[in-house]
Amino acid sequence: MGEKKAVVLLSGGLDSTTVMAIARSEGYEIYGLSFRYGQRHALELEAARRVAKALGAKEHLVMDIDLAKIGGSALTGDIEVPKGRDEGEMKREIPVTYVPARNTIFLSHALAWAEVLEASDIFIGVNAVDYSGYPDCRPQYIEAFERMANLATKAGVEGRTRVKIRTPLINMTKADIIREGIELGIDYGMTHSCYDPSPEGMPCGRCDSCLLRKKGFREAGITDPVTLSR
Amino acid sequence: MGEKKAVVLLSGGLDSTTVMAIARSEGYEIYGLSFRYGQRHALELEAARRVAKALGAKEHLVMDIDLAKIGGSALTGDIEVPKGRDEGEMKREIPVTYVPARNTIFLSHALAWAEVLEASDIFIGVNAVDYSGYPDCRPQYIEAFERMANLATKAGVEGRTRVKIRTPLINMTKADIIREGIELGIDYGMTHSCYDPSPEGMPCGRCDSCLLRKKGFREAGITDPVTLSR
User: Fold this and answer.
1) Which residues contact A101 (CB under 8 A, 6 or more apart)?
2) What are residue A32's DSSP bridge partners?
3) How far is CA A228 from CA A18, A94, A182, in A?
4) Which residue on chain A is closest to B104 by alpha carbon?
5) Residue A165 is inside which H or E element, if any?
6) pLDDT at A91
7) Burial code of B179-202, b = ≥16 C-beta within 10 A, e = fewer?
8) Residue B33's closest chain A neighbor by CA?
9) Inter-chain contact B153–A105, Cβ cutoff 8 Å?
10) Could you say which of A109, A145, A154 has the minimum Cβ distance to residue B135?
11) Which of A107, A186, B78, B156 pairs as cysteine with B150 (C-beta 3.0–4.6 A)?
12) How far apart are CA A208 and CA A202, in angstroms?
């Protein structure tokens, strides 16, 4: 058997990077899983590669899935990324940056890989506090996915490994997440969060993701190594 | 609003073709969804295109997902497709043609598309009788997926459309399925079932899929237009 294994969904952003560091600190052998999904921001994938390498992932797999074909989101299509929304607005409605069923699609691939690797845990950086209004970041969704996953697989039928969906950030604020990551030695300079970066790769500073990141560093009292602001 | 819409998972085989005909007979506007997933048998996709056209699907979307990268199956990798297994063997163990988490990945994409289309139903041709031993064909799995799906989506959160996972074949024998399809006017000559066809596209006649199909036509007392045998 050897080491215990975990598949970690890795976008290259602040949350998934912290999650990977947490999984490593718990002694898992790490298998990072990222997606090229027709998103505007291929910069995420460069960040994911840097992070997987820096955190010593055993493998880093990048799957191609063309969610743009399905449409319905500012992150895969032509809809504009909203800027300058306040927290009230973020919480009131599900934003156009929501990608239909994205976490379900990502977790399904993670489940397939976990089954092949005989990994016992799938880590995902969802967050129900500063969560920007996505339905598939809520605890009841994650529980339902885990239940389904344990009926979906060969291992489940044969009563072997049960797979656990691990969401260590789910009840943390962005500031908590950043403090935890710093404690685990993460250099957040290698991460990328912006939904709509400049052609040179600089964060826009005004999309939901940039605003939540900014607020997190400010509340943690730490300087963001990417923007050099706090 | 207009017509009620359904996403139908379509492999181009006998089961999914019958499911599409059933959805049509219930008055749905049909959106066929197929996958190019690194499978050996691209012939399936040609069959799926013929079927979608013949049954008047409003759209037919083919998504690329490279399950071969994840591995673990005779249908995507280098493992040999087993031949000449009897029914006892098929039921006793999950075969190497099992693709890890395949139905979960397929249904996840269907869920994303259903959300964008505002479709109320997703049809899938799983079968728990002549089912060849796959865990993700069982009713309890389908129920768990549906439950998860209704927590995953924007519509679920806002209390609008609930999505239903429809499995009209789940308790039918292969012979029942074929009789039903014939009644609905399906020409099964346009379908493709074999896991391991010859380079010319002829079914091998000995893989699980060919054997179940053969048994079905025999029990229904109908000649298979593909092999001209019953």
Assistant:
1) A136, B108, B109, B111, B112, B115, B149, B152, B153
2) A8, A60
3) 19, 30, 15
4) A108
5) strand A164-166
6) 63
7) bbbeeeebebebbbbbbbbeeeee
8) A70
9) no
10) A154
11) B156
12) 15
- In angstroms, the CA B131 to CA A113 distance is 23
Let me know: does A20 contact A10? Beta carbons within 8 Å: yes
ipTM of the complex: 0.87
pTM: 0.89
Whether residue B156 lies within 8 A of chain A, CB to CB, comes out as: yes
Q: Where are the beta strands (DSSP E) in A57-163?
A: 59-64, 121-123
Q: What distance lies between CA A124 and its chain's CA centroid? A: 6
As given in the structure block, the two tokens for residue B7 are 């996403």
* Count of C-beta atoms within a 10 Å radius of residue B160: 11
Phi first, then psi: what are they for A121, rounded to 5°? -135, 140
pLDDT of amino acid B105: 95
What average pLDDT values come out for chain B (230 residues) when binned by 10 residues?
86 96 98 85 89 97 88 67 73 67 94 93 89 78 95 72 92 95 96 88 89 94 88
B65: nearest Cα among A109, A149, A74, A99: A109
d(CA B98, CA A154): 9
Under 8 Å between Cβ of A208 and A97: yes
Domains of chain B, earliest start first: 5-220 (3.40.50.620)
Q: Is A129 on the interface with B (CB under 8 A)?
A: no
Q: Read off the pLDDT of each residue in A130-159 and give the average, rounded to a whole number.
A: 81
The residue to which tokens 């998972």 are assigned: B9
Quickly state the pLDDT bin for A3 (edges 50, 70, 90): confident
* Helices B14-25, B43-54: crossing angle, 10 deg rounding: 20
Higher pLDDT, B110 or A136: B110
Query: CB under 8 Å to A38, separation ≥6 — which residues?
Result: A65, A66, A67, A68, A69, A76
Question: Among B82, B78, B75, which residue's Cα sits nearest to residue B38?
Answer: B75
Mark yes or no for CB contact B135/A152 under 8 Å.
yes
Q: Give pLDDT tens digits for B168-221.
A: 999 999 999 999 999 999 999 999 988 888 888 889 999 888 998 999 999 999
**Which pLDDT score is estimated for B1?**
46
Neighbours of A92 (CB within 10 A): 11
Q: Does B79 touch chain A (CB under 8 A)?
A: no
Q: What is Dmax (Cα atoms) for chain B?
A: 52
| Sheet of strand A29-36: strand arrangement | A59-64, A29-36, A5-9, A121-123, A164-166
